[in-house]
Request: fold
Amino acid sequence: MPELRKDPVIGRWVIVATDRAKRPTDFSRDHVVVRGGRFCPFCPGNESKTPPEVLAYRQSGAANTPGWNLRVIPNKFPALRVEGELNRVGDGMYDRMTGIGAHEVIIETPDHMQLLSDLPESRIADVFWAFRDRVLDLARDHRLRYIICFKNHGEAAGASLEHTHSQLIALPVVPKRALEELDGSKKYYDFKERCVYCDMIRQEEDDQKRIVVQTDHFIVFCPYASRFPFECCILPRQHSAHFEQTDGPTMQNFGWVVRALLRKLDKTLEHTPYNFMLHTAPVQEGPMPHYHWHMELIPKLTRVAGFEWGTGFHINPTPPEEAAKFLREVGIP
Amino acid sequence: MPELRKDPVIGRWVIVATDRAKRPTDFSRDHVVVRGGRFCPFCPGNESKTPPEVLAYRQSGAANTPGWNLRVIPNKFPALRVEGELNRVGDGMYDRMTGIGAHEVIIETPDHMQLLSDLPESRIADVFWAFRDRVLDLARDHRLRYIICFKNHGEAAGASLEHTHSQLIALPVVPKRALEELDGSKKYYDFKERCVYCDMIRQEEDDQKRIVVQTDHFIVFCPYASRFPFECCILPRQHSAHFEQTDGPTMQNFGWVVRALLRKLDKTLEHTPYNFMLHTAPVQEGPMPHYHWHMELIPKLTRVAGFEWGTGFHINPTPPEEAAKFLREVGIP
Reply:
């Protein structure tokens, strides 16, 4: 009998197929293979082919020359731009505003042939430090209300360049998905006087069956109402609404945890494409007792079709308990 | 300068790229080609290979034999099932219920090599009559609260069988996406005492620039805050919350309008895969002055990636005004 499960934060229902659950090998899937061999604007020596860097972690060299381990540049074809005025206007019955914002690319390593999961934990942590540094800098522009940090890994997951990178987009409005989490967690807090995410940590530790990895700083699990097979949530144990306020030991451990999860996914699903997204509070807001930052990771294994577009429902062919078991048990070096 | 536009019903923002707008030929896209030649359970003569039909429009023959023009069958691998009890239970802090519902397939024509857009308007109208008949029948089961009628056309849009068909799924809850439209249109109605969709008809007629096709019964346009290139909305002029209450002349004209739109899309985008979804009121509800049924049609031209998953925002590389112009101007026989 299939099961309907409800996301405890935003109230979205999903259908979980409990009979004939799909195993990792049941999906026809893309595999990410780095080919190299073509001109790449993200490789060292080609710094002049990108807009000038806004941040770099380097061992040597001047700005926009080789010697960097990580480099942040404005997107050459940005979805939004920092220049100009933020105008909000009516257009008949409709509403629009100018596309003020920022769109930046984090080049995670100078080595074209490396994947994020190939990097040591401290260099993965550097990617998150770079997110933090850029968020803190961009937040000084008070027109920017929300910053999403994310990664598209593999062409099927939306990556247009092969050289491993992640991105951030700063927006002049708080997007719908963030509002849903803020509203849902606020309602839960008003009702229970507890953070729903803190409660999820306790619940997942009691149940154990959806846990993938646990450390002193993080819990990684397949959410109860996962929309997608092998969807994972990385939740810090320490309550904090703002990712950019993460302390050093937690950030270092975040690098370890993401590396462990990516390697487990790579091994279980044979280098399947994926997306990850940081969910954090709006940058101009103060502390929030009800909201708790986290990372969502979605392997690209299924297609979104009419039913999902029409309802917001998803059909998940792999119960999170089974996905977590595969990921928990797979050995990584 | 890119533009941010807000959906007037659910409040979702989209980024519309206004410079370097993508034209139809700029998308690398799949083309739907019907190959045939393999065993097909939807073809006449193979009726015994599917679950018994729940509805058929036939010229001759007994149930579950050839002679039909259109046939509705339960999905052999249903997402939800009618049998069993609807149990709502807590699971620690989480909520779940048994997967009660229905999942049916509408085989639109006996001819394996035909597309929906190849059918004459009255046979396309028959597909919508079949939706109506099945919705009216299923709504007698008061456990079922919402019924979504949709089509996945082409493998890239999620179709798993080639023989042209559409589907319906009946759900024991009103899904999030429907609630958002119901809530958003209710807020607008409370504020203005007018239906937001009726206002959109007037606005689009005033502006003209997003209109694709107009008849006495329908207006077809590319929505102001389209998420996707060439996204279209088909809106009936007559205010009604419930698709299943559509009258004969409107239904017949719906067949004509959908045929015209599909042929325009096929010609402009060279048989690109698409999804369509009927948005209608929950089946157990009475008339609603604030809600207005409509059809949403999304050609599959772009990928959903980390930014979209993380924010609910979309980046649309083709302004709806330009998409509508292409579709309006393309000639169809």
Remarks:
- Chain A touches chain B through 73 residues (CB under 8 Å).
- Chain A has a mean pLDDT of 95.
